[in-house]
Amino acid sequence: MVAYLHVHRAYLRIILEGAVGSAYAAMDERKIEKRLEGGTWEEALEIVRAREREMGHLRDALESKGVLRDPDLPEDVRSFLESVTRSFPDLDIRLLAMARRREASEEGREELTKAMRDLL
Question: What is this structure's pTM?
């Protein structure tokens, strides 16, 4: 199961990077958190906005082609894709909140708060 997860993540990363220029949606949650720990509030916004674009692209592709309704789609792939799409926007709000807690500037806190509201 773990090997399949790595294959699915690698494949999704390749597809997303080619289609939208980033692949945070394919990244492990902990890796994204680590990236944000040392970053700026602007970088946090950039990551969350990239994830929003990626999720839009992914959802459009899955819905327009009926991928998740395909009876030949292996259950582990279906489960993986569903978990990735379900992570939005909850993970993103949590990432923004994490960045907001450690942000010292009023401007940064305001922008992060606005971004959280926009996701609701």
Answer: 0.86
